[in-house]
Amino acid sequence: MGDILTEFAQASFDRQLELVDDPAHQAALTEMLGVDGLASMRALPRADAGVLAAKPAPNTLFVPGVMGSVLSPAGLGGVWWLDVRARKELNRLGLNREGSDDAEAGIDVQPTAIDYGYSEFMAHGLAHDHVSVRGGWYDWRRRLTDSVDRIVGRVDELRASNGGQPVHLVGHSMGGLIIRTALMERPVLWDKIGRIAFIGTPHHGSPAIASYLKGHLWGTEPMAILGLYLSRATFQTLMGPLSLLPAPLGIYPNNPQLVGEHPCANFDLYDADAYELDFGGDADRRDALQARLDSVADHWRRLAAHQAGLSSDQQQRLLMIIGVGHETIFRLERDGSWFGRKDKKLRERNSGDPHREGDGRVPQASATLNGVAANRYVNGVHGELPNIPAVAATVFEWVTAGTVSPQLATSAAEALDTGHLGGGPLAPVGLQGADGVDLYADDRVVDELTDDERAALMAKLESGQIPRFELTKIL
């Protein structure tokens, strides 16, 4: 693996297409992307000079999900997330107590690009006559408020290059919460933007994040490998992922079957002690986690108040695209019986119940906002949603024309009848497969793997049997 991989990871979409077309890079990129991934990128549409000349000036900003922005710590010699070669350095990317800066001085972590898992979405934008998409990358480790200036700055940059025209916003997953936070913190942004599309955004959080905080990482082989190198202690410092915890009781949509109880857990998600973590006697680490949880809860309350205060005109500029049809972590339950404590992840779907339907990462209830222009549904997996052609077409029609394409269903039931609409081979690697949650090692967390299992995972990674490891996503 040579420097071409670092260049590819940090390149613009147009430059990535040039690199995959160059025969000189085929061997290295095949090792990184896999045979199917490289073939998929080569099959993406190219635009000739005439087509590019006819494209509008930049008019759409795409904000990716958590781990969807490439992070490049200059102080570590250009390491990027998740470079297989630098996986042993992951714990150096932890944050300070406040979650506001790198814990280790001099690392200088900066977001530099959108990862190539969104290539198919960007290609759909390239092929659209009225869309010119640019990336809004950010440091997903930090507090959501820390990314506001960067996103507002990107909007201003695009407006400066398009004659002051409104910029439309598209957010996938956590990217949607970054957009909402920017609108809350900088109300003047409403005067600079047009319409907004949210794709699989956990508007009320995801129980998956609580499961990682409680039991550490689990899922497919890439998730297990990530967990072997990213420690519990480091994960607990990452304010961005922690900000995706389910919103507190009273803000998260009520489940009428659980009166007075949080739909996502039977314990207090915002009490550090309720997670029963081993802090090794380090009271400061426990207190630091509690401070982060308090900060996340406060942010959810502010977001809810801001959403409730939006005008009708502002609400009607919002489109929700919601994934359904896939087993999802819906609820965590602690069993405190006399026969020993057992923690359970409830994942069984119940069609017709928004608290028991989802996209593999985000429950339907969490991805829904009421009072907006439209909620549309797709039978697809969370990480693949932006790359699904019908989703991309709906998004681009909405932001450019203000109309909602009939390609997506108007109800979850209709989407389920349509069948699964999967993305291509470049879809992010993570916890679920196309047919639901693909659990690794019988639902055991990383810490429970045997030495032989750990060695087998490392051997597969080293031999190139786990391509696209750098696309591993926790959400």
Structure characterization notes:
The protein is α/β, with parallel strands linked by helices. 35% of the residues lie in helices and 12% in strands. The protein is built from 17 helices and 12 strands. The protein has helices at residues 3-10, 13-21, 26-43, 49-54, 119-127, 148-161, 174-185, 207-215, 221-229, 232-235, 239-242, 283-308, 312-315, 364-367, 389-401, 412-418, 451-462; strands at residues 60-63, 69-73, 109-114, 133-135, 167-172, 193-199, 318-324, 331-335, 342-346, 374-379, 432-433, 436-437. The strands form 4 sheets. Strands 4-1-5-6-7-10 form a 6-stranded parallel beta sheet, sandwiched between helices. Strands 2-3 form a two-stranded antiparallel ribbon. A hairpin with a 6-residue loop joins strand 8 and strand 9 (342-346). Helix 5 (119-127) packs across helix 15 (389-401) and helix 6 packs across helix 7. It starts with a helix and ends in a 13-residue tail after the last helix. The model is unreliable at 429-441 (pLDDT under 50).
